[in-house]
Amino acid sequence: MDKALYVAMTGARASLQAQGTVSHNLANADTPGFKEALANTEAFRIQGPGHPSRIDALHVDAGFNRRVGAQQVTGNALDLSLQPGNWLAVQAGDGSEAYTRAGALSLTPNGQLVTAEGNAVLDDNGNPLAIPPYQAIEIGNDGTLSIIPQGEGPQTMAMIGRLRVVNAADDRLTRGLDGLMRNTDPQQPFTAATGKAVDSGMLEASNVDAAGALVQMIQLQRQFEMQVKVIKHGDENARSANSLLRLNG
């Protein structure tokens, strides 16, 4: 009986953790470039002395959904939609290089190019991009950034930098607690994207299926309730068995 209680208890714990993942997805259903987090469970045999009869249900981080989100035309020159497999390099809070597909960029009062979360966008040399005062700005399909300086004519448009856009295999990316992706093997840096890397004036929407996530949340809630019932009935059966043993004794 204790084996059934143990499996049900660990299963309920995994169901709660999976609900947390789905809740996170629902919260980011409208976040540009967000990739749906995936959750799974697996059986793990408890190690140690004695007969190996205890099985733990473990919550497993299964990575993220690779599907490209829908494209939204905004007309804003600082909104970027990256080609499949491409990621924009940004500076994480700890100063390291990280990657995102959230292309809603903006400028700080001192001219630094940042993401919606405030992470500095990096140039092709790995340095944060700063943009001088301008009256027009353009981001090319290859990531080049050009401006017409303030007070100048169209003939003065000049390139001032290039965004660091890398091509990264999905299996070499892992999501950090800050929502940014990291290279799982820093000893092998990602290569710069070639050819058409981005589209300006567009954003990639989140790839979270809100309706599907709500259905999944309901299924997980029912699964959790069923596991709690198993624990309750197991406890009642154990009490009944103890009562019978006392009567026979």
TrEMBL record:
One Pfam short name: Flg_bb_rod
Subcellular location(s) of the protein: Bacterial flagellum basal body
Coarse class of the protein's main subcellular location: other
Positions of the Flagellar basal-body/hook protein C-terminal domain: 200-244
One BP term from GO: bacterial-type flagellum-dependent swarming motility
Keywords in alphabetical order: Bacterial flagellum, Cell projection, Cilium, Flagellum
GO cellular component terms given for this protein: bacterial-type flagellum basal body, rod
Residue intervals of the Flagellar hook protein FlgE/F/G-like D1 domain: 87-146
Coiled coil: none
InterPro entries to which the protein is assigned, alphabetical: Flag_bb_rod_N, Flagellar_FlgE/F/G, Flg_bb/hook_C_dom, FlgE/F/G-like, LlgE_F_G-like_D1
Family, per entry: Belongs to the flagella basal body rod proteins family.
Subunit structure: The basal body constitutes a major portion of the flagellar organelle and consists of five rings (E,L,P,S, and M) mounted on a central rod. The rod consists of about 26 subunits of FlgG in the distal portion, and FlgB, FlgC and FlgF are thought to build up the proximal portion of the rod with about 6 subunits each.
Name of the protein in question: Flagellar basal-body rod protein FlgF
